[in-house]
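Meet my pick.
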Amino acid sequence: MHVKTGRLIFFIVWVKMAQLLAQEEKEKTTALKDLLSRIDLDELMKKDEPPLNFPKTLEEFEYAFNEQGQLRHTKTGEPFVFNFREDLHRWNQKRYEALGEIITQHVYERLEKDCNLRKEFLPVDAMEDEPKSFIYLSEDALINPDKLLVLIQGSGVVRAGQWARRLIINEDLNSGTQIPFITRAMEEGYGVIVLNPNENYLEVEKESDPDAQPSPDDMEEPAEKRERKEEKEGKKKRDFYEKYRNPQKEKETEQIFIRDNKSPEEHTRYVWDHFISKSLAKNVFFVAHSYGGLCFVDLMIHREEEVKKRVCAVAMTDSVHSLWHQEAERSILDWMQERCCNWVSSSDPLDTPLDNMLPDCPRVSAGTEKHELTSWRSFNSIFHFFSELLEGQESEDKPSTTMTTRSANRAKQHEDL
């Protein structure tokens, strides 16, 4: 009898211990889940990374452009390496962006020194202390009586004179900048205006509010509360939290927008009103890449009659415009079918005509499937297109083959509508 009672007591004790262990394990799991829910994975990546202090010049970065316009390390001769530090993607990205800002300044220097362009600040009546943007003009941009070329890049980090920052860093200056277009245009007697549609605001460090109350995270916890917290969390959990709770912080900034140039579309209209429309050129030409094509369509919607009178031809490269979403009139569609051509990313050979899903303007292959390369790959075709349209403009009695073909295509597209 005593043996049976002892076994029963042992069984009861064993069950209680098992229940207590299960409860303790459940509490640990719940605590760990609670901790993980409060940890920002992006913040974890910031812990223990090197300071976000990067070189300010190409020389300090130990990079330079060679004679072929390729960015190479000055000591090893190797191309740019993005993963400079393994497992530190955010730091590598910040380093890449810092180099990109230096590249932007380098392109500005090339525009001024190699292309002899001058900087014109916007707004034209800006006060000394207000935010400003700028564009670049050739010396004859406003007084050339014959031809004017206007260049508009896509959206993003690219600034005046650039098609794609990635191409400049990883390929060369020719494919990534507008310099070849500017040089060719000047050789063929064009004046040139280089737009800067993404320079829409001045970014400044946000001033701290002296009257703001510190947040609980910024206040030192009382010793008793801290001790209770550490006791509750346990050593393992506390060490885990301590390891990741102080990531490297970045400065807070705010944007002060530039008057009359708050968006790429507004910038394009502003430059048209204050510069392009006032130029003496009889024929104006546009090269518009990606979002730049949308900006041109927006310009047509707001300045249709002016654009039709002045613009001879528009070369788009992988344009993202939409006449339907932008609610363009049918008259704009008709004009674009005659005066525009869009070189789009495609595996087909360069200049291969492509079917239009929407009959806005002729589409041909740029000879590459890479969006950012479409401008460079269609470089020669664009200037040939301009020459043919100009010949047709100057002699209506002898329309170019291209114009005749486009008229035939347009008639067919109208039949399909």
About this structure: Confidence is low (pLDDT under 50) at residues 235-247, 397-417.
